[in-house]
Specification:
Layout (H helix, E strand, L loop, with lengths): L29 H8 L4 H12 L4 H23 L1 H5 L3 H4 L1 H4 L3 H33 L3 H18 L1 H29 L14 H16 L18 H27 L7 H10 L5 H35 L6 H22 L4 H30 L6 H4 L11 H14 L11 H5 L7 H15 L5 H15 L3
Helix pairs in contact: 1-9, 1-11, 2-10, 2-11, 2-15, 3-10, 3-11, 7-8, 7-13, 7-14, 7-15, 8-13, 8-14, 9-11, 9-12, 9-13, 10-15, 12-13, 13-14, 15-17, 15-19, 17-19
Length: 475
């Protein structure tokens, strides 16, 4: 059967539904565009600014960025690999671990917080960037940015992929030029490359921040691979995602740190403009404009993902027909929530808000990522009954007690190791303020779920999945 490609000019209609095999298209290489460009924007670069503000010198900040980025991207890329195999949005697939209703309260509420926090951060930076480029008020700039991003999100999957494909080479050019500007500007603080100035607590905080940014993609990374044919292997989709997002993440976060190093008090937009102007006067504005375009793309991705979450949550209580109007309304709702938060926080408090958001989001998604990946790769080994994922009375149940118990216990074991601005856990205090929460939450949640999964009737599920595959043309 020939594939029916979803054209960029068409408004997507499937929304949270399973993508039929006849409508799959593309190749794993398409993921390179979206996940490389996904990090080339003002907010991602501001992650490096926040990372440097923690207090490590530049060399140790860059090392923490490298290690943290690769760590977080490793998990993100394995989630991406699920898309072609299942043809489902990532969070809908979580029903298999947490139950039809349980996923709403354990996963989707946190996922919605993830979208809102990132898009609020995007919105805070989009206003000053619009002001710098077009000399309009920051408030007007945000509204204009939100409208453009929402329009892309309404069209959906293919439009988002097209925008990122167009931006791929300009993004590489922008990063290359910005790297030259950072080198030419110089003026780095004394001791920036002194390896003896190592502080483990600050190093680990940077590690958590940047790895948290990458893990923050995990709840919706497979949303952008789910239209790929099921013949696309786990290996190819993993490496396309890992290499693209890992490379751009290290490059972008590192540039953010270097851009803010000469004067750690500069706002992100001002710091990036300063780097551009180091090449020639006025180029800083051009550079901000390029990063702004990338920001609009990522705002569209977050708005699209947030709308899928809204629809999925509503569908868990009452069946929702995934119409264009439903997505329009859900994207509008996202915009109102994001505007309210961005307006309240403001640019002056961006670093504190964004830094805390990255840390807390990393915490709440650590147990989920462990449970989801263990279930997919070690328990069910990629075999799911798709129809039952959309059936509240199906084999996965309304409340997946195994997933919820493993998640709750994982979070509880992490709390003593938390290191945040408002709270430091008692274990972290006794360990010199070093954040080891990742290395507790991941194994505890994953191993507990693996033990609890012994009671799942996998033979029955495999028989049902085999029967379903013969009816749907699955592999």
């Amino acid at each position: 059967m020939s594939n029916t490609r979803l054209e960029p000019t068409e408004i997507e209609t499937h929304s949270v539904n399973w993508i039929p095999h006849a409508e799959r298209f593309g190749k794993s290489g398409d993921l390179i565009n979206i996940w490389f460009v996904g990090n080339v924007n003002l907010t991602a670069m501001a992650t490096g600014v926040v990372a440097f503000s923690i207090g490590c010198n530049l060399i140790w900040t860059l090392v923490a960025i490298l290690v943290g980025t690769l760590f977080g991207t490793f998990f993100m890329a394995f989630h991406s690999a699920q898309g072609p195999q299942l043809g489902l949005p990532q969070l809908v697939q979580s029903r298999a671990q947490f139950g039809y209703l349980g996923a709403v309260f354990t996963v989707w509420i946190f996922a919605l917080a993830n979208y809102v926090a990132y898009n609020a951060s995007d919105a805070i930076l989009s206003g000053p960037a619009m002001h710098e480029v077009f000399n309009i008020s920051a408030e007007t700039g945000f509204i204009l940015a939100a409208l453009i991003a929402s329009l892309i999100a309404i069209y959906g999957y293919s439009q988002i992929h097209l925008v990122n494909k167009v931006l791929f080479w300009p993004s590489i050019l922008a990063l290359s030029v910005m790297t030259m500007g950072a080198i030419m500007r110089g003026h780095l603080p004394v001791g920036s490359f002194n390896l003896r100035h190592f502080a483990l607590a600050k190093f680990m905080t940077v590690f958590v921040i940047v790895s948290g940014f990458q893990i923050g993609w995990a709840p919706y990374v497979s949303d952008y691979s789910r239209y790929l044919p099921s013949s696309v292997s786990v290996k190819s989709s993993f490496w396309a995602t890992f290499l693209a997002s890992g490379l751009s993440g290290v490059w972008v976060f590192g540039l953010g740190a270097v851009a803010s190093a000469p004067d750690g008090k500069l706002s992100p937009v001002t710091a990036f403009k300063s780097v551009g102007d180091s090449i020639f006067a006025g180029f800083g504005t051009i550079l901000v404009a390029i990063l702004l375009v990338g920001l609009l793309s990522i705002m569209a991705i977050n708005a699209y993902g947030g709308s899928l979450t809204f629809i999925s949550m509503a569908d868990s209580f009452r069946p929702v027909k995934p119409t264009r109007m439903i997505r329009f309304v859900s994207i509008l709702a996202m915009g109102v929530i994001v505007w309210s938060i961005a307006h309240f926080v403001g640019e002056d408090r961006f670093n504190v808000f964004y830094g805390n958001a990255l840390v807390f989001l990393a915490y709440i998604f650590t147990p989920w990522t462990a449970i989801n990946l263990v279930d997919y790769f070690f328990v069910r080994k990629g075999v799911y009954v798709i129809a039952d994922i959309f059936n509240k009375n199906g084999i996965y149940g309304r409340w997946g007690w195994r997933g919820n118990l493993a998640y709750g216990f994982g979070i509880l074991t992490m709390i003593p190791f938390f290191v945040t601005t408002p709270y430091v856990g008692f274990c972290a205090r006794h360990l010199g303020g070093v954040d080891y929460s990742y290395f507790v939450g991941l194994p505890v949640s994953g191993l507990l779920y693996l033990m609890l999964a012994n009671g799942i009737d996998l033979k029955r599920e495999q028989d049902l999945a085999k029967k379903e595959g013969s009816l749907t043309g699955g592999h």
